[in-house]
Here is the input.
Amino acid sequence: MQYSIEGGSLPALIISLDPGEKLISEVGGRTWSKGDITTETSSNGGAGKALGRLLTGESLFMSNYTANGPAEIAFTSSFPGRIVAMELGPGQSVIAQKKAFLCASDGVEIAMYVNKDLKKGLFAGEGFIMQRITGPGIAFFEIDGYCKEYDLAPGEKVVCDTGVLALMEDTVNMDVQMVKGLKNQLLGGEGIVDTVLVGPGKVYLQTMTIAKIAGLIIPYLPKK
Here is the structure.
């Protein structure tokens, strides 16, 4: 399997498949294809994993693509940004925000990841329920806006707004902390919780969150 990422800030992931090679994606993930490819819809792991995907905001089912001959298949980002490829070894996992997963080679597993502190997680919005993607294989993710990478040393910390975290290695500890001070919570304009990431491990931060997109669009929606 070979791939290229084209298109600059409006990226397309184009994957060349040899006969018999397989990919998985969320249902309807493919944008276009060229050559003989069979598409099948399945739960990919049974009812438990399907329910986990539903709780993360994704479909119960996934699309499975199999090349019957030399073929090409493309996936595109849903918003201007960047597509990131990650090679995962056996048992190696990354944690991804909802909607970040684009597609992966056959053998990669997708499961639900829930913030360990339920009470704090309920305030975390997009950071509460995420996805755990586990190898072996290669997985592709879409990052909205500009992507900033940090390789955190043990104990090194990054504090960010909810939804800014797009991806992190599973060695990184994620916590949700209340913003200190009632005035800051009510008037600070940055929400009432922060996402705190503590190394070691790599984190991928995105500059355009779903909440920010909604805030920009809402003033222009027609009013009754």
User: Anything to note?
Assistant: The chain has one domain: 2-220. Residues 47-55 form the longest helix (9 residues). The radius of gyration is 18 Å. The longest strand covers residues 81-88.
